[in-house]
């Protein structure tokens, strides 16, 4: 239960910091500010709840860990429930604070009128490839021969870099739960496009996990 509570809180904090920076920071902090908010949230939670749950706070990461035999299928599903619930509560807190000033809640998307107007195919490729990279970094930096004291920093900085590349493409999901909370509350096109931000990160997470399961990335 402690693990699930940690995952619930951690995912909520990720949404609060990351999506909150979009809602409350806006143009004042810009793309670099958004990237830092998401990345620093991961660093904080990695050291805060990492010793309890491993700080997945991302269904794609849990899938990668399952495929690398680091957790059971039952445990993975329980993590998923906690992560989606935490993301929804995080988005609800932002909405409660912002009220009528809330604008989009940091939802992900693609196409005309969103970010740089990138296509569905561009969004799909970005989310799969960069989620795979993210999961590879996470599994590698928390593996048996890693330096675990630096894992949180490596993971957080990787997420910063991913956001610097991809904010104009999709707003950057690489995390189905992070996309779920805001999209569920905003509805409309954000909810209609949510499927991509569930499917693509899970595919990317599976690729990362399978690379480790097949020992392609293991010494």
Please explain how this structure is put together:
It is found in: Cell membrane. Keywords: Cell membrane, Membrane, Transmembrane, Transmembrane helix, Transport. GO terms for molecular function: water channel activity. With 219 residues, the protein is mainly α. It has one domain (2-97, 106-213): Glycerol uptake facilitator protein (Up-down Bundle). Helices cover 74% and strands 0% of the residues. It has 9 helices and no strands. The chain has helices at 2-25, 30-53, 59-67, 73-98, 120-141, 151-170, 176-186, 188-192, 194-213. Helix 3 (59-67) crosses helix 5 (120-141) and helix 7 (176-186) runs antiparallel to helix 9. The chain starts with a helix and ends in a 6-residue tail after the last helix. The model has no long low-confidence stretch (mean pLDDT 93).
What characteristics describe this protein?
mainly alpha, Glycerol uptake facilitator protein
Write the layout of secondary structure elements.
Elements: H1 2-25, H2 30-53, H3 59-67, H4 73-98, H5 120-141, H6 151-170, H7 176-186, H8 188-192, H9 194-213
Return the string of H and E elements. Answer: HHHHHHHHH
- Radius of gyration (CA) equals 16 Å
Given this structure, which CATH class is correct?
Mainly Alpha
CATH topology: Glycerol uptake facilitator protein
Overall number of structural domains: 1
C-alpha termini separation? 33 Å
Overall mean pLDDT stands at 93
Which residues sit in consecutive blocks of at least 5 with pLDDT less than 50? Answer: none
Strand count, sense and barrel status of the largest sheet are: none
- What structural class results from the helix and strand content? mainly alpha
Shape: globular
Helicity, in percent? over 70%
Strand content: under 5%
